Amino acid sequence: MRYLTWMNLLVLPFALAACDNAHDAEMPMENEDMAMTADEMPMNGDTMPMTQSGTVRAASAEGTVAAIDADAGTITMEHGPVPAMEWPAMTMAFDASQPIRDQVSVGDTVTFEFETSDKGNRIISVSKR
Fold first, then answer.
1. What is the domain-level CATH number for residue 84?
2. 5-11, long-range: CB within 8 Å, 24+ apart, which pairs?
3. DSSP notation for 23-37
4. pLDDT surpasses 70 at 120
5. Is residue 5 domain-resident?
6. What is the count of structural domains for the chain?
7. The whole model's pTM is what?
8. CB 50 within 8 A of CB 38
9. What's the rounded Cα separation, in Å, for the pair 7 and 2?
């Protein structure tokens, strides 16, 4: 009798977990178009809609240069909301060519134009304010 009690105690949690997972697999997402892959997840917890594969979108923003990483080829911007992208204000790194990186210094307040695609975000022009 003890053997059956122990077996039930060991097997029951696995059976319940399997039932719960099977139920989740059958339930469609409320809006499957909004599902995100791991690569599309925002890095800092803010919601950030991504583009469809192969699509390049352009926008402009205002912000402050928080960091310049020559080795990575990036400029980190603390920027305000970007309505064209439905982005909230956030701090994020953008790819930037050396000539663009050379135009700014940490702490500069700038207006910048950028492109975003499934390959990342890239500053295409910058001007100090």
1. 2.40.50.320
2. none
3. HHHHSPPTTGGG---
4. yes
5. no
6. 1
7. 0.59
8. no
9. 9
